[in-house]
Amino acid sequence: MFSRFRTRPTARTAAAGIVAFAAFGVAGCSETAGEEEGTSVEDVQEADEEALEGEAAVTPYEGAYDGTFYDDVNTYVGQEVTVSAEVDSVVSPNAFVIAGTEDTTVDPMLVVGATEVSGLSEGTLVEVTGTVHEAFDLPQVEEDTGVDFEDDLFNDYDAEPYIVATTVEVPEQGDEDIDTATATDSPTSTPAAS
Fold first, then answer.
1. What are the angstrom distances between the C-alpha of 84 and each of 30, 127, 185?
2. In angstroms, what CA-CA distances link 10 with 15, 89, 112?
3. d(C-alpha 113, C-alpha 130), whole Å
4. I want to staple 91 with a disulfide (CB 3.0 to 4.6 A). Which of 95, 158, 160, 182 is the partner?
5. What is the pLDDT of residues 67-82, one digit of tens each?
6. Rg of the Cα trace of the chain?
7. Buried b (16+ CB within 10 A) or exposed e, 165-180
8. Per-residue confidence at 102, pLDDT binned at 50, 70, 90?
9. Which of 106, 83, 109, 99 lies closest to 169 in space, CA to CA?
10. HSE on the CB side for 156, CA within 13 Å?
11. Measuring CA to CA, which residue among 86, 172, 168 is closest to residue 122?
């Protein structure tokens, strides 16, 4: 008999709590609906489209080393890109300079890596995948790559944009006449960083 009497007040208390909670929940929901008047589904969709367009603007570059890339090089700083180009000159086993395509007047760009790349000479087609950096600083590059470069060879590149390569692909023998934009048709891959 004692337990039956105790159960009834608990059931009443629980029922009262549920009613109070439901009333609080309904009151809370009704106050959030009023302040966003004037916003439509179209407004939200336009904002989403603008955000997607902004993302497309910072999509990593993949293509020829030409005016398109060179003019926007600062937007790619810190990003991994893939550029196809001809070797302008070989600075050391771990560094070389790429030139723009024949139809552009872009400045040559330095490419460095932690691993030596074999088979490079002036005019060799390469496809470089690596991270773009804003301003060449030899001590920092040596620290980042773990390579002790010969200082005098890099004086011309100080404070210039450059790429730290993770991969350098070189076409196989007989494919040297591959167009720069399609240098990946039959490459051999050489990792350029560890």
1. 59, 4, 11
2. 9, 87, 76
3. 9
4. 95
5. 999 999 999 999 999 9
6. 31
7. bbbbbbbeeeeeebeb
8. confident
9. 83
10. 9
11. 86
User: In whole angstroms, how far apart are CA 153 and each of 147, 148, 162?
Assistant: 14, 12, 15
Phi, psi of 148 (to 5 degrees): -95, 95
Q: Round to whole Å and give the CA distance between 151 and 47.
A: 50
- Type of residue at 72: D
Tens digit of each residue's pLDDT (9 = 90 or more) over 130-189: 999 999 999 999 999 999 999 999 999 999 999 999 999 987 755 444 333 333 333 334
Among the residues of the chain, which ranges form H helices?
2-30, 41-57, 67-71, 138-145
| Cα–Cα distance, 15 to 166 (Å, whole number) | 67
Q: How many residues does the chain have?
A: 194
In single-letter form, the type of residue at position 84 comes to S
Residue with the two structure tokens 């773009």: 132
